[in-house]
Write a structure and sequence with these properties.
With 448 residues, the chain is an all-alpha fold. It starts with 25 loop residues before the first helix and ends with a helix. It has helices spanning 26-33, 38-53, 61-67, 76-89, 93-102, 109-115, 129-142, 146-158, 163-172, 181-193, 199-207, 216-229, 234-243, 254-263, 269-275, 280-296, 301-310, 319-332, 339-342, 345-348, 351-367, 377-382, 385-393, 399-403, 405-414, 433-445.
Length: 448
């Protein structure tokens, strides 16, 4: 029976995907950047060796040095001194490689000397190497001094943000550190306007620092208007924001699409009650997260909604379980992720009890050339346990072990246990002489 889907499923197009070609081998790359000058080789060899010693990947170095030709202005000894100054800020190798790779311009003596003690002036204890790397990158691009960054960090603290929150902001979205104080106050006032107070604001920003990069007038207020149009009060919005601040990252119209799909579900009442158990807002956001999960693995927006509409139980499953099933489908079973649109029941099947045992049996049978017609995903998932057992397990004794304990359950269903017939025999009672006489008199009384 064909399923008619809602029109809004067809309004979304697939985003383009860009693939980066793999690096060629080191010799070809080195030849591509080499020149006819012997001094060029004499310079690159010790520089490449220096970068390798500090953890840089050899196959990436020729292209990196070609793009950053200014490094030729420094000797290998000077470059090593730059590395040592960076390591004095944070000794981890990941910090050094990440910082130099993302922003090679930090390898300047004056810049590094200026920041050698500048990190300690920020007043953030236990600052992470990711935050330090982002600070150096911003300082290099915008010409910030340690005093400039220190004033901006002080502005954050003045608004009531803890050091842990400031560190989290610098790790994830460091650009708000460039924002004016009025812009930061505007975000805080918006949160206070929906009922978030005191330490809750600090927690919301720490869990979702991207809110500081969102515009209040163009993004947050229209989103709040959408919540109101959907029938949610400010107390509902406040409760959900405090519970999971990421809801403020919803695109305008996204929650409306999710709720429209939920309200059109045609499934068992028990499933629908479980989906809406925590309210419509929470149910709509759960749909959004699972749509994002399916899109991340290759489905377009419309198809992701289609899968959830056809198999609503997926909305109740943990995202890690969904990802595990998709990775097994694509990596092990060699099916395309598009198969989920035709067979969404795959995501609703039990992974350990149904998907894996059945695939192991079919894969073993296929390796022996015992599969006449190819077993598709639909047959693998939708076939009943007894039918699958009788067709692919029972005729092959060695498959009993592959199918495991599920073979025993299927076998029990196919026949009665030994001695079961004895339970259905009527119980015998001893006959007395009186019983015999009563039966005789009864028979004689019947009309002839």
């Amino acid at each position: 029976m064909a399923i008619r889907l809602k029109p809004f499923f067809h309004n979304i197009t697939k985003s383009s995907i860009c693939f980066t070609p793999p690096f060629q081998n080191r010799l070809l790359l080195f030849q591509s950047v080499s020149t006819n000058s012997p001094s060029h080789h004499e310079y690159l060899n010790p520089l490449c060796n220096l970068f390798q010693r500090y953890g840089f990947q050899p196959h990436e170095l020729p292209n990196f040095l070609k793009k950053n030709d200014f490094l030729r202005n420094s000797t290998p000894q000077e470059t090593e001194n730059y590395f040592k100054i960076l390591q004095s800020l944070n000794p981890s190798r990941e910090f050094l490689v990440s910082t130099v790779t993302s922003c090679p311009r930090v390898l300047h003596f004056e810049f590094l000397e200026n920041w050698k003690l500048g990190i300690n002036q920020l007043g953030i204890h236990n600052i992470s190497w990711i935050a330090i790397s982002n600070i150096l990158e911003l300082a290099s691009k915008f010409g910030l001094s340690p005093n400039d960054v220190s004033r901006r960090v002080g502005c954050f603290k003045g608004l009531g943000f803890s050091e842990a929150t400031v560190n989290r902001v610098l790790e994830n979205v460091p650009m708000p550190i460039m924002s004016a104080e009025d812009e930061l106050c505007e975000k805080v006032e918006f949160l206070m306007g929906i009922g978030v107070r005191g330490s809750e604001i600090d927690r919301v920003v720490r869990l979702y620092p991207r809110i500081l990069a969102l515009g209040v007038e163009k993004r947050l207020k229209p989103l709040l208007d959408e919540f109101s149009d959907l029938g949610f009060s400010l107390s509902d919005v406040r409760r959900e924001v405090v519970r999971e601040p990421q809801v403020l990252g919803l695109e305008n119209g996204e929650l409306s699409h999710c709720l429209e799909m939920l309200r059109s579900l045609k499934c068992r009442l028990a499933i629908k009650e479980s989906i809406f158990g925590d309210g419509e807002f929470r149910a709509g956001y759960r749909v959004k997260l699972r749509v994002d999960c399916l899109r991340k693995h290759g489905l377009i927006y419309r198809d992701a909604f289609t899968v959830l509409w056809k198999e609503p139980r997926v909305i109740l499953y943990d995202i890690k379980d969904i990802e595990k099933k998709i990775e097994f489908l694509v990596g092990k079973m060699k099916f395309g992720v598009e198969c989920l649109v035709e067979v969404p029941e795959y995501l609703g099947a039990n992974f350990d009890k149904q998907i894996v045992p059945r695939f192991n049996v079919i894969d073993h049978l296929r390796s022996r050339g015992g599969v006449g017609d190819e077993v598709g995903l639909r047959k693998l998932v939708k076939m009943s346990r007894l039918k699958f057992y009788n067709m692919y397990v029972k005729p092959y004794p060695d498959h009993e072990k592959i199918y495991g304990r599920f073979a025993e359950k299927s076998a029990v269903r196919s026949q009665h246990s030994v001695g079961m017939w004895k339970l259905f025999r009527p119980q015998k009672y001893p006959e007395t002489e009186e019983d015999v006489q009563n039966i005789r008199h009864f028979m004689e009384s019947l009309p002839k």
